[in-house]
Design a protein that fits this description.
Layout (H helix, E strand, L loop, with lengths): L37 H4 L87 H12 L2 E2 L2 E2 L7 E5 L5 H8 L3 H10 L12 H11 L1 E5 L2 H10 L18 E2 L3 E6 L5 H9 L16 E9 L2 E9 L7 H10 L2 E7 L6 H12 L4 E6 L8 H9 L13 E4 L8 H15 L3 E2 L6 E10 L3 E10 L2 E2 L3 E4 L2 E9 L5 E2 L1 E2 L4 E7 L8 E4 L3 H23 L5 H10 L3 E9 L2 H12 L7 E10 L4 H10 L1 E6 L6 H9 L3 E4 L2 H13 L5 E18 L3 E14 L3 E6 L2 E8 L2 E4 L2 E2 L2 E3 L3 E5 L11 E10 L3
Parallel strand pairs: 3-4, 6-8, 6-9, 9-10, 10-11, 22-23, 22-24, 24-25
Antiparallel strand pairs: 1-2, 5-12, 7-8, 13-14, 13-21, 14-20, 15-19, 16-17, 16-21, 17-18, 17-20, 26-27, 26-34, 27-32, 27-33, 28-29, 28-34, 30-31, 30-33
Helix pairs in contact: 8-9, 14-17
Length: about 750
């Protein structure tokens, strides 16, 4: 209690006023030896060592936010302790200096670099030109939705390819894709940065930001793609040397209205039976053939392309007009000029192709060829006998009349109006006229060589498919080793089925062909996504949510050839179904209906449309078990009519097809009395005599609507054969049978529509 408080123990912080050694002013034992002038004379030998108490009142290193004091280091001392001789005093002063912390004009003392940077007053850094330009652009750019986007002046042209995204557009204008998403959102459109957009959306965004949006055409995009691989697509007859050019056969496209006799005319020219193999007697494929005609003592080959006449096949007719040299317009003398006649005429005139008119069916009662000449005069086709330049030939395809005169007219027109030459000594180029998927051969394509020569073993790319030519076949199935200009051939060896109308070129090697095909496929995918994207604004979103889910009919299209699938898709999308019902085609393809198609239909509640193809075996059982509806059609307008009726809810009671049984051909027996007998085993259901049947080969329909004329087990005639038993089946006059063909019997039952 009575103890005195000990003085505080000195600390080890020399800068704290309450710690450390006693200050010199209150030094016990009197003033420091040497007095005030000690600083001038310097420390005496034998004097006390410097200690923290000798330091100035304020720290040489300022505290955060505090400026160091100027002037002498210690009050009352003109030159602080430790000053060098001749110095003006201060802590660490230089000889002759004014003293204090600052040892020079505007300079810091000996602390340069001690704390991470040089001494002296920090100067303001100069901005680079790029920083100034960016700052200026940000000042000028409008703020839309709180973001800054570079603006154009209204005439700035930005080229965008089909199916591009906001990221692609942002790269063009040096903007942030996220900012463009915000701008588009404030304009009433919702999209992500990587989503493919359509042309209207880009036009809307460009008009807001001051850019003139130009969509790159597919031809320009194709040219840029091939230029990147050093392949020139612009090489034509004009750029070739005269000594390299050789005469090539003319390519003739037969066009006209449905059922006016185009295929029958080609049959008469080729002495073949093409129309008999087409369902309903109408052409639904595009075919290419080459025939030979002796003209003025010279054997002249002519390539013919047959196009469908049904209104749904507009794309096929347009494609045929683009690749042709001469168009034969077939008009029935008893029917006159019809809508597809005018459409075919417009296609030919748009392609600037000479036209030869074949007035067919002159042997039919009521035929009036002169009336046809008068009607076509309205469409700038004036016959030669009327003083015009168009050659008219009256023919009868059924009787074979005047076929030679028609071919003479074609060759005369070709020699008079066209320069039909090409260079065969270069890599081949051309167009894929038709393509399909063969179970044994894989993807096959019918191509027309336009220039160069195609050899077996060449690496080719056609559309988004590529491969090496494994084999080439002509229209008769004969193998070829090379194909010269204007020669139609069937090519085997492609990786996938190309689309009808795709251009094909010979690439330097397989790797280049694969890279071109992959880039084409990516561009096609983005373009299809942009086409399928349905625009919805913020105002429409609330209405759609309030109105509930819109009824949507999802379809999956499968066909035997790509041209038919394309035509069916275009025709279905043109159906006007109103706003209550939406039609979506979620998948399309070539070949038999696969398990993947059925799984997709199950997931999306879609209906599968099989056009001349079917689901067989396990796939058909899965579809039936899972309740997936598959509609089979062999004539295109039946499919169009039924889908349209289903969409409009105007369906009347209909006849539905009920499959009775299937049988697989195991052996074929020849009979002089009955023709070919199919030795078969019944795989499912039962086979009844007198029912209708169809023949499918590798998933593709070969024959339709054939009657089971006879049914026999051993030597006994029977009326039906059940599952698991063998039998002999007589199909009447149909004899085109092969092993493993599938015979499916069915009957039509009336079904009331809901």
């Amino acid at each position: 209690m009575g103890r005195t408080r000990e003085p505080a123990r000195p600390g080890n912080n020399p800068f704290a006023p309450s710690q450390g050694m006693p200050r010199p002013q209150s030094r016990p034992g009197g003033p420091r030896p040497g007095g005030a002038g000690a600083g001038a004379a310097g420390p005496r030998p034998g004097g006390p060592r410097p200690s923290p108490g000798m330091m100035p009142d304020r720290s040489a290193v300022g505290r955060p936010g505090e400026r160091p004091a100027r002037g002498a280091g210690r009050p009352g001392a003109p030159g602080g302790a430790g000053a060098r001789p001749g110095g003006g005093g201060g802590f660490a002063g230089r000889p002759g200096g004014p003293g204090g912390f600052r040892s020079g004009p505007g300079g810091r003392g000996g602390t340069q670099g001690a704390f991470g940077r040089g001494g002296g007053r920090p100067g303001r850094a100069r901005k680079s030109k790029r920083a100034k330009r960016m700052e200026f652009e940000e000042m000028q750019a409008p703020s839309i939705g709180g973001v800054s986007v570079p603006r154009g002046d209204g005439t700035t042209i930005i080229q965008i390819r089909q199916g591009a995204s906001l990221s692609d557009f942002a790269d063009k204008i040096n903007a942030n894709p996220g900012s463009l998403v915000t701008v588009l959102f404030h304009l009433g459109e919702m999209a992500t940065a990587t989503q493919s957009l359509d042309e209207d959306t880009f036009k809307l965004l460009g008009s807001e930001l001051g850019y003139d949006i130009r969509m790159v055409s597919p031809e320009e995009e194709e040219r840029e793609l091939f230029d990147s691989f050093n392949i020139d697509l612009e090489i034509g007859v004009d750029s070739e040397d005269e000594e390299d050019l050789e005469a090539r056969p003319p390519v003739v496209t037969v066009m006209g209205h449905v059922d006016h006799g185009k295929t029958r005319l080609l049959d008469a020219i080729r002495n073949a039976e093409v129309a008999a193999g087409e369902a309903g007697g109408i052409t639904q494929h595009i075919g290419a053939y080459q025939i030979h005609k002796e003209h003025e003592g010279v054997d002249r080959p002519i390539t013919f392309i047959d196009t469908p006449g049904h209104e749904a096949f507009t794309a096929m007719r347009a494609r045929g007009a683009k690749v042709t040299d001469i168009a034969i317009l077939v008009v029935a003398a008893d029917d006159g000029v019809m809508p597809q006649t005018i459409e075919a005429l417009n296609h030919a005139q748009a392609a600037d192709v000479p036209i030869v008119v074949a007035v067919n069916k002159i042997d039919v009662e009521g035929a009036n060829p002169s009336k046809i000449r008068q009607q076509l005069t309205e469409y700038n086709l004036v016959a030669e006998e009327y003083g015009g330049e168009t050659m008219f030939v009256d023919v009868s395809a059924k009787q074979g009349q005047n076929i030679d005169q028609l071919l003479e007219a074609v060759l005369l027109t070709a020699d008079a109006a066209l320069d039909l030459r090409a260079n065969p000594d270069r890599d081949a180029r051309g167009i894929a006229i038709e393509a399909n998927l063969d179970k044994g051969r894989g993807a096959t394509a019918t191509v027309l060589i336009q220039s160069g020569t195609l050899h077996v073993g060449d690496a080719i790319v056609a559309g988004s498919s590529h491969g090496r030519v494994r084999a080439m076949l002509d229209e008769h199935g004969n193998a070829l080793t090379e194909a010269t200009p204007s020669r139609p051939v069937q090519v085997l060896g492609l990786s996938s089925v190309p689309r009808a109308g795709d251009t094909f070129v010979v690439a330097p090697d397989d790797r280049t062909a694969r890279q071109i095909a992959e880039k084409r496929e990516a561009a096609d995918r983005q373009a299809s996504l942009a086409k399928a994207r349905k625009r919805i604004s913020l105002e429409d979103l609330n209405e759609a949510l309030a109105a509930g889910k819109v009824d949507t009919l999802n379809l999956i299209l499968k066909g035997d050839v790509s041209g038919s699938v394309e035509a069916l898709e275009d025709a279905l999308l043109q159906i006007d179904v109103g706003e209550e019902v939406d039609l979506r085609i979620i998948d399309r393809g070539v070949g038999a209906i696969t398990l993947n198609n059925i799984n997709l239909a199950m997931a999306s509640n879609a209906i599968i449309i099989g056009f001349n193809v079917r689901a067989e075996g396990q796939n058909a059982e899965v579809a039936e078990r899972e309740g997936v509806e598959i509609r089979y059609y062999s004539v295109i307008y039946q499919a169009i009519d039924e889908i349209e009726q289903a969409l409009k809810g105007m369906l009347k009671p209909e006849f539905e097809e009920v499959e009775l049984g299937t049988a697989q051909i195991r052996e074929i027996f020849r009979s002089s009395k009955f023709g070919n007998i199919a030795g078969s085993i019944v795989r499912s259901g039962e086979i009844k005599r007198g029912t209708r049947a169809r023949i499918t080969r590798n998933g593709v329909v070969v024959a339709e609507n054939i009657e089971i004329a006879g049914l026999r087990r051993f030597k006994d005639d029977v009326t039906e054969v059940r599952d698991g038993f063998e039998c002999g089946i007589n199909l009447g006059s149909f004899n085109d049978l092969q092993l493993d063909d599938l015979i499916s019997t069915y009957e039509m039952r009336e079904k009331p529509r809901a």
